[in-house]
């Protein structure tokens, strides 16, 4: 069986935009409500809301990587990264690192995606890890990157990622596509369609 990235027409995704239309409309309506509401609350409340949202996102992101973070430490780290007064808490490198990454994400939202940006976020998010090699860069090992289950003597391979040697090329293609389909890009896509397709690249 060929993996998705081995298909001849990869990554020319086929989708039915009509099936997404109602959800896209609903999303844009709710986004408009949120933006409108935010204009009627104080600057202090807007900042507090942003910190809360970034904290939740940071914690959820870290859980995917198998890391459990302390919410109070993440929030205070985000406050410090924003240059605000924060409670004195002892934050671990993982907590302060991902807090810096979330603030960086917020402050660079309108900028084109780049290798350097991804590598910077990688270093910030996983800077506390001592078991990982090549932080802030694409993987270089020769062993296949696989998602497997079952016993070690008879593993079931659910997915195999592209070999390390081809990762820079795949990432260059993704970054070009991502910037091209941004709201200010040459071929902008609606939010749900774009985020769904971005997920399928990986």
TrEMBL record:
Pfam families recorded: DUF4172 (PF13776)
Location of the DUF4172 domain: 3-84
Descriptive protein name: Filamentation induced by cAMP protein Fic
